[in-house]
Amino acid sequence: MADKTIATRRGELSAAASGTFTIGEDLTINRLGFGAMRITGEGVWGEPKNHGEAIRVLQRAVESGIDFIDTADSYGPEVSERLIAEALHPYPANLVIATKAGFDRPGPGKWVMNGRPEHLREACEGSLKRLKLDRIDVYQLHRIDPAVPAEDQIGTLADLQQEGKIKHIGLSEVSVEQVKQAESMVKVVSVQNRYSVADRAAEDVLEYCEAQGIGFIPWFPLGAGKLAEPGGALARTAKEVGITTSQLALAWLLWRSPVMLPIPGTSSVAHLEENVATATVNVDDGKMKELGKLARSAQA
Question: Which residues are catalytic?
Answer without folding.
Answer: 75
